[in-house]
Amino acid sequence: MSVVETLHTADPDVVTTMREIGANAREAAKVLRSAPRKQKDAALLAAAMTIRADVDLILAANEKDMEAAKARGLTGAMLDRLKLDDDRIEAIAKGLEAIVELEDPVGTTITEWDMPSGLHIERRRVPLGVIGIIYESRPNVTADAGALCLKSGNAVILRGGSESFHSSRAIHTILEHGLDAAQLPSKAIQLVPTTDRAAVGEMLKGLDGSLDLLVPRGGRSLTERVTNDARVPVLGHLDGLCHVYVDKDADVEMAKKIAVNAKLRRTGICGAAETLLVDEAAADTLLPAVAKALQDAGCEIRGDEKSQALVPGITAATEDDWTTEYLDTIIAAAVVPGVKGALAHIAKYGSQHTECIVTENQEVADRFLTDCDSAILLHNASTQYADGGEFGMGAEIGIATGKLHARGPVGLEQLTTFKYVVRGSGQTRP
User: Fold this and answer.
1) Does 124 map to a domain?
2) pTM
3) Strand pairing class (109-114; 120-127)
């Protein structure tokens, strides 16, 4: 029998089920915090091998989700997030293998020093403990989040969206197989076995003290609920209002390529550009060229009065357009007074996620990179690079836009904290 065919059924008593899941995760975390890298990597490699072996069964599970999602009228962007195919399943397997290649952060010494008292002090990386991930649509998050938490020595409780229930369950069963193969606790990676929203409420309460961190990954309503109601620390971002600013000294062909890629490569990801800003000093040449490239690729543009005057087919933008995460083939456009204007617009409307400047002027680029207060800033590169895999961090759990503990892509290192180890030779404090 294939691994994917041995699936679990949900316990109708949600509160009891969730508390058991939390207690099991806490016990598993005790084992993981000292598990050697070789054992964790073996679990991930076994899972990657099984994912490739069970492609057809994963696709069959995904097809059930896709049919239900279409019947519910989910948007094209949501369907794109949900859909799996051979290439995306292979990418999941490769993602696990990429995490295997990363250095294990657990137990590494961040820094160390000696004191005049003779004490030797070491700051050492340790796992956070038990992490809860609440996410929507993307079944690949099941593999990415499970693998990252395992490699960083954390137990994880995964609560995927109802729309991806069958796909996530199939992938989770494979991760459990990897844990068993490596003789690690199967409860190290748990998937909430019900679509009942009460399960989320129990996670927000902290599962009787079992959860150390919650990571929401999904739409604004999900993130707002988690941020507002959680009784444990939360790591994540609310919106992905990403901007592309085209400076007067930009190379026009580069600007066209970057704008089209940033907006349209995958419209449903949080790193997709939602607003195009163009320097007024060269807007009469730059904006028509960039706008045409976007329009030719099927993108609708909603712009301010200056944009509408320069480009046929741009419709009027409302105030809401500057704060809308479209996740669709729509972009807002504005003409701004240089880099100062771009920075002001981003500061007013942005979400501190990811911004890009296109320019050949290094001085202007440096000002943008220094003065723009967002988690990820790019010079002459698409905002679609805003993820941990493209930063060499392997897969990621998400993007954090806060300023405490972690910011930007959340990978292995960001899933650890530290402790101080102090060695002496009999010292007592006078």
Assistant:
1) yes
2) 0.82
3) antiparallel
